[in-house]
Amino acid sequence: MKKIFKFQLAALAVLAVVSCKEVKKEATDAATKVEAVVEEVKEEVMAQNITFKMEPKSGSEVTGEVSFTEENGTVSMTGTFSGLSEGEHAIHIHQTADCSSDDGTSTGGHWNPTNEPHGAWGDKEGYHKGDIGNMTADKDGNAIIEFSTDQWCIGCEDENKNIVGKAIIVHQGVDDFTSQPSGAAGARVSCTGIIQ
């Protein structure tokens, strides 16, 4: 009788150990699934979109709208403009979200947190983080620009990437990508501050 009892007790102990291992494995699997869902939700929450209206400067009639969307570490910018003269026009991010002056100079120079020379975006010789480039207006004065980069962020703590507190400036002329410090793009004809 004692042997049978000991055998039953041993069998119960083995069963308990096996059951605990299964429960632990199930708990680990569940925790892994929860972590995956949390990461997915974080990515969805991290998607941000901000949109601003452009205002005319320097006696122009240039208006428009600029939107920034950040998703999965990339910021995409879309701009639509009207009132431009036909041809190419430079568009840049400038240092300060202050469009109070009539000529847009209250925005300061190009946003250049890494102290690089002015140039075309991605140039191995260097470029400003605000050197977006040129866009082409049609005969009716309308232009659209789309631009994406992982070198910007919306409201992050990295001042070399954070575009909040800066300004978008559209210039009357074309950026030549070589003249220092700003590409000889001419008057500032439209402005908006990037404010979150």
Description:
The chain has 196 residues and is α+β, with helices and mostly antiparallel strands. The chain has two domains: 1-46; 48-193, Superoxide dismutase, copper/zinc binding domain (Immunoglobulin-like). It is built from one helix and eight strands. The chain has an eight-stranded antiparallel β-sheet with strand order 5-4-7-8-1-2-3-6. Residues 62-193 form the Superoxide dismutase copper/zinc binding domain.
Short description:
With 196 residues, the chain is of the alpha+beta class. It has one helix at residues 2-46; strands spanning 48-56, 63-71, 74-82, 87-94, 131-137, 143-149, 167-171, 188-193.
> Structural class from helices and strands?
alpha+beta
CATH class of the largest domain: Mainly Beta
- Number of domains in the coordinates? 2
| Mean pLDDT reading | 83
**N-to-C span:** 79 Å
Per the principal axes of the C-alpha atoms, what is the gross shape? Answer: elongated
The count of DSSP E runs of length 2 or more, i.e. the number of strands, is 8
Give the topology string: H per helix, E per strand: HEEEEEEEE
